[in-house]
Design goal:
This protein is an alpha+beta fold and 81 residues long. The protein has one helix and four strands. The longest helix is centred in the N-terminal third of the chain and has 19 residues.
């Protein structure tokens, strides 16, 4: 009985994996930022969130930078270690 259940589960997982894997988007190593936004020298973006009025960029240096869409810095938040 256990072997039948195991075979049934294996046969059921194969189509699920076959359907999900091709639909997964390719993961890029860096987030895509608008061209107008420039980070400080040495800072690297690890996350980007876009809003209708602003763009938030989380850097690898523990900062959240809020930019206007024209690239001007609107707000800077430093995350405490």
């Amino acid at each position: 009985m256990v072997i039948v259940l195991m075979i049934t589960m294996i046969v059921g997982v194969i189509p699920v994996v076959g359907l999900l894997v091709p639909r997964m988007p390719g993961a890029s190593s860096e987030p895509v930022m608008p061209a107008a936004i420039r980070l400080e020298s040495g800072a690297k973006a690890v996350a980007v969130t876009m809003h209708a009025d602003w763009v938030a960029v989380v850097t690898d240096q523990g900062q959240i930078l809020i930019f206007n869409h024209d690239g001007s810095l609107r707000q800077e938040v430093t995350i405490a270690p």
